[in-house]
């Protein structure tokens, strides 16, 4: 079977199309994503009035009722954007196209923008992906697993590395665990915690009580039995005994490792959740064509409030 990413259906929006559409059409796209309920016509974010004056020259609006002035990106993750709408849309396409993630350095070269602009933008897109996945509940057959990241020199073999990371001698105190809950053939969600037990509690809170949960034999998953029909697998015997298996959770972790090793080289602890959420979003949307992926991320960003973490980030640190 042909890999989905190689099929024509996977390619519905190309960089060529984005640049060909031009600034007006790109701008119009963001208006439609921001105000879908009003066919892309502006709605005052302060009072909800649908009648606005269009200050066309500056791409701004003025509310007829309360005189508030705003733009299509005011109050969203893309507020105070420095890029043109074409570049912003191109950035989103580049970002969703990177199945193993996209480094800020690559994005800065592709778009010919400063590194710090690309760095902040990539994190805003990760935030949009995380928001798109937020608040979901897992149900059905759900696999739960954890893996350690950070604070440790990575051995070559992944299975070795899982075991070694649990030994106190190999821990620097900076290590954190990513715990994933993954529906078979469905959605996944992630959390970052100091221990698998703690992360497991967070994930368990979002799993429907009628679900069947699959986990490995490690004792920190024992609590799952109290809440769910729980199946365990002994990894030292086999990776799947036909009843219990955590292969889908494992494939999430191999994606996150590939992102860490191949693209970002090192993931700082404070960003671990952002990268884990990105990997989760990519897993959940891997069979969606890239045009729809780009629109989903752009819509989530336009629907979200100003990023607390990333708004004015460089002004604060420099
Ligand atoms: Zn208003």
Explain the overall architecture.
The chain has 318 residues and is α/β, with parallel strands linked by helices. The protein has 2 domains: 11-133 and 303-308, no CATH class; 141-287, Nucleotidyltransferase, domain 5 (2-Layer Sandwich). It is built from 11 helices and 8 strands. The strands form 2 sheets. Strands 6-5-4-7-8 form a 5-stranded mixed sheet, sandwiched between helices. Strands 1-2-3 form a 3-stranded antiparallel sheet, with no helix packed on it. Zinc ion binds at residues 44, 46-47, 49, 63, 65-66, 68.
User: What is the CATH topology classification name of the largest domain?
Assistant: Nucleotidyltransferase, domain 5
CATH superfamily of the largest domain: Ribonuclease H-like superfamily/Ribonuclease H
| Computed structural class | alpha/beta
CATH top level class name of the largest domain: Alpha Beta
Total beta-strand segments: 8
- Give the distinct bound molecules: zinc ion
Helix share of residues? 40-55%
How far is the first residue's CA from the last residue's CA? 51 Å
Number of structural units classed as domains: 2
The number of helical runs is 11
- The residue ranges in which pLDDT falls below 50 over 5 or more consecutive positions are 152-158
Largest sheet strand order = 6-5-4-7-8
Overall pLDDT, averaged?
85
Rg, Cα atoms, Å? 22 Å
Global shape: elongated
Q: How is the biggest beta sheet arranged? A: 5 strands, mixed
